[in-house]
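Technical annex, item 7. During the second reporting period the consortium partners agreed on a shared format for inverse folding records so that results from different sites could be compared directly. Each record opens with the tokenized structure and is followed by the designed sequence. A conforming record, contributed by the partner at site C, is shown below for reference.
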């Protein structure tokens, strides 16, 4: 088909054919009518380029890739974000239909036959070219989104929460619905980006929002639209690497993420000191380890939840101190305090209700003893 020429009804009427295609799109496609003036001009550029490329391709079929690629290079890259692949296929089909109608109007049947075959081949080539454009756009968009996501995660960890960060969050598709939680742990062994993509797909499958990235050697996930925190934490924890996975307390919104991120990261550094910790483990369950590691917020929280309420109830404070630090049995505590064992049992239940920690449970007793100790230190220094 080399060096063949098209009839003048096509070669000299590319402008008219473009206008005809544009008018047909306007009458048939609601999405085209809803486009702005700038976007419609882009589509018109592609339509004209598509018809011009057919003329050039018919004369030089050996340059098929170069010619078909030029159809979409005539429009800005933003067109791939505004017009979907399906809509682009509809655009190309409209152009082909207009050209075919022009061919059918040619009187010479011997000329029409090769032109019909040429249109079929050209439509195939242009379809491949369109698919390639959108595949590259999707790949570039994915890489760009990953970079933006990494910047957002770093900003949350640093506490640099400004309008620019929030705009980037919205651009990543964050819905701002439901409560928020954080998960932190080691990334899986292997390619980091692959691990993040697996986590994103898991979040999408469960209908939750996710912003994730690797900060240093920690994979951090900011999760939105959380209804059942324990369930979501378990579902996503399996996609982290070996070792502890830390879950934050429920957060009301993104404004609370920076503080929660610091707490979650601190908890991760001490989680290995509790070998029997569940996976995932909530930050508040690691208050004792965090406090011992010098986390002032954890120390203050233990004082507030343990020492302060018990200090307001002297008999309970005395019972807790005796049971935990002198004689950790009901009978021994009763003898030390000169009360009945049932009274000790009753007071221990009151302590549990007041603090949320049970003196008879080893893990809770650990937190209670630390809360009492830090409270006394604070009291003696004040």
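Designed sequence (site C submission):
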């Amino acid at each position: 088909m080399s060096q063949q020429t098209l009839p003048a009804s096509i070669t000299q009427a590319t402008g008219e054919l473009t206008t005809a295609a544009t008018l047909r799109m306007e009458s048939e496609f609601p999405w085209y009518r809803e486009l702005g003036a700038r976007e419609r001009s882009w589509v018109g550029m592609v339509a004209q380029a598509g018809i011009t490329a057919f003329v050039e391709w018919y004369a030089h079929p050996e340059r098929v890739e170069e010619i078909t690629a030029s159809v979409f290079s005539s429009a800005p890259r933003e067109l791939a974000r505004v017009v979907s692949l399906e809509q682009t296929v509809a655009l190309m089909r409209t152009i082909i239909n207009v050209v075919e109608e022009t061919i059918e109007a040619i009187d010479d049947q011997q000329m029409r036959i090769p032109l019909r075959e040429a249109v079929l081949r050209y439509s195939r080539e242009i379809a491949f070219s369109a698919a390639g454009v959108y595949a590259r756009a999707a790949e570039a968009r994915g890489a760009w989104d990953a970079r933006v996501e990494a910047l957002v995660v770093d900003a949350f960890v640093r506490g640099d929460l400004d309008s620019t960060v929030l705009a980037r969050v919205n651009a990543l598709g964050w819905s701002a619905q439901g409560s928020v939680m954080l998960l932190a742990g080691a990334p899986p062994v292997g390619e980091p980006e692959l691990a993040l993509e697996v986590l994103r797909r898991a979040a999408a499958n469960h209908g939750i929002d996710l912003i994730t990235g690797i900060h240093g050697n920690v994979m951090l996930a900011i999760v939105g639209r959380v209804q059942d925190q324990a369930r979501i934490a378990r579902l996503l924890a399996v996609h982290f690497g070996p070792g502890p996975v830390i879950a934050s307390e429920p957060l009301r919104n993104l404004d609370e993420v920076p503080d929660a991120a610091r707490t979650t990261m601190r908890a991760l550094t001490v989680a290995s000191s509790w070998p029997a910790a569940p996976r995932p483990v909530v930050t508040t369950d690691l208050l004792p380890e965090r406090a011992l590691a010098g986390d002032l917020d954890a120390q203050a929280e233990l004082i507030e939840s343990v020492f302060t309420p018990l200090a307001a109830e002297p008999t309970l404070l005395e019972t807790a101190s005796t049971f935990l630090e002198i004689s950790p049995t009901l009978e021994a505590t009763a003898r030390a305090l000169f009360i009945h064992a049932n009274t000790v049992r009753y007071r221990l239940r009151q302590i549990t209700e007041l603090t949320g920690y049970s003196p008879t449970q080893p893990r809770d007793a650990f937190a209670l003893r630390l809360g009492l100790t830090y409270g006394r230190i604070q009291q003696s220094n004040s």
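The longest strand covers residues 218-226. The mean pLDDT is 84. All partners now use this format for quarterly exchanges.
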